[in-house]
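Predict the assembly for these two chains.
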Amino acid sequence: MRIVADTTRCVGAGQCVLSEPSVFDQDEEDGTVLVLVERPAEGGLDGVREAVGTCPSQALSLTED
Amino acid sequence: MTSDQPTVTLPVPRTCPFSPPAEYERMRENSPVSRVGLPGGRTAWALTRHEDVRAMLADPRFSADRTRPGFPVLAEGQQQLAARFKLSLISMDPPEHGPARRAVVGEFTVKRMAALRPRIQQIVDEHVDALLAGPRPADLVRSLSLPVPSLVICELLGVPYADHDFFQSRSARLLRRTEPVASREQARDELRTYLDALVTQKEKDPSDDLLGRQVLKQRETGRGDHEDLVSLAVLLLIAGHETTANMISLGTLALLEHPGERSRLGEDPDAMPEAVEELLRYFSIVDAVTSRVATEDVEIGGVLIRAGEGVVGLGNSANHDPGVFSRPGELDIGRGDRHHVAFGFGAHQCLGQNLARMELEMVFETLFRRVPGLRLAAPVDELPFKDDSNIYGLYELPVTW
């Protein structure tokens, strides 16, 4: 599974960092999402799914490729 | 099933301080997207389901501009209060909103907030010291709930805390729906004049604080002007202390009233972040700030909302939707669900949410650790709840130990 982050939609709420700090961070200047691990291991996907579900601007998705 | 004849008028008072109004449950079951009356005789749509509130708040066809005709007005004079000055972030739409939010949201990242932790702990400790050294009973609102977030936002923004009596009283008046419009306008003008002078000072000599850094950023990017910065300062100063202060009071009260939950928390300090999320969901203190006006015809929850019609996303109802939160009326600090809309949803979701989370965690942890005998000094049904304010909370919370 690969994380797709649309930084043009991101509003820097930081919900993803709360969900999975080992996978997400925020740009220091404008707060937008930084994906640290594009393909997280299967075991770490729960936090990533929570991040996708709580993202207020719906900027995150998971794809199968 | 929907009806054009509203049977409910917003805002609906809470009859129990720990529950949403009973009308919300009836609306959610019978007519989840329904016409409601507004003060002054106008009407709007009210959304009561979690799914619909989130869908509406994430949909760019709904405008957050409080000055637009049709925007739901929940207190007399609200539009007149929003007009005349440049809109703040809370009222901006695309394309202005995105760049304006990005210019400031870097100040509120999770990491930036974590870096404030030692200073906030010091502020909390000093106030708990003073509480313990002072007379019993004490009013927790005055001794802890209000001063802690107020001091924190002042230091972050670069506003002199010595002026706190001035801006706290103006903020409270501005938010009180029952306050005459002229008095609310005066409070707004005085607050604005005060912050206008402060921003002017920072423009002459940019200090190392949020407002000073925004001055430098404006110069660097060429985006935004003096009026934008004053509007931002007004918004952040009010939002930064009123909301968190009320959650400190209500959260403390809820934990005192639910000793089982409180002892669960005492046994496992790591449970605090989840407990804070649950308290935010449970009280949903900014129930109707998530209002919008449709700019096009949009279908929400199977109901056609026409362009120009106002919509109120009732956060307190969404956060008690049993389809999303099982046994929603129960305070369960281990619920572990951050899907609530207590901070709103969509592009306008609370800018300071991670500051609020951290302050709440640190205040509850410190207060209950250092004052283990804390208890209420008045019966719950005699406490003065803020039923007349746009932000729910407590005017006073008498405690002893």
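Chain B is about 50% helix and 10% strand. The radius of gyration of chain B is 21 Å.
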